[in-house]
Amino acid sequence: MIHLNQTHDSEFIDSSVEFAGTGNVLYVEDGAKLRNSRLRFLGNNAVIHIRTSPFYLRLLATVFHESVFYLGPGASFTSEARFLPTERKHVIIGSDAMFSSRVVFRTADPHLIYSASNHQRINPSASIWVGDHVWLGEDTLLLKGARVGSGSILAARALVTKSIPSNSTAAGVPARIVGKGIFWSRPSVHAYTLAQTEESSVFSHDDFIYTRDPNVLDIGELEGQLDLAASGHDRAVWCQRLDQMTSKSRFFI
């Protein structure tokens, strides 16, 4: 199933889609602008679900059997980001994500590692979840099991493997929390005049401060629903339901 319409606002420039499997679903919201993107399905019953944005989307996404790549609305990219959801795990990204250069997501290592004492596998794959309004710095690498709460910043070259609370800054290899109780906004200061710098010294509202409330989503429950999905169509319906879950606090950690 393919939803990739040429509308007045949409663009599909130097980009391609490849299907090598059955039962897959590609949904690109009307008005999305893809540039230098490559979307590949290398398995069956997988989903790529891409929401629209006023910015160009630069995606190198490869999904395998029964995996989902979900990109929420309003994302921006400095250069192509790479997404690799595999082994039936998923990459889920909320709204208003800001990607710097060369950001990478991988849900698997991908080769098998075992304990020498009992021969049991010790590197299971795991999904990656990123909340709303997250800034992903240059060369950020998010690996299996990474979870990033809304409003947070991942510093350049951060290696993220665990949970990052909302409104935090994480840096390092592996990433650790280096700042709490922060938020960020999109304007770039590179060409600021003195007047603009002075004007931006205070931010006047709380739009990007996230708190826990009854609308916080249960990520484990949501992923359990994906695990129960029997087809690519069922996973696409799950993505459509997530589109409707728009509360500010939904991805609070």
From TrEMBL:
Transferase in keyword set: yes
Keyword check for Glycoprotein: no
Transmembrane segments: none
Keywords: Acyltransferase, Transferase
GO molecular function: acyltransferase activity
Protein name: Acyltransferase
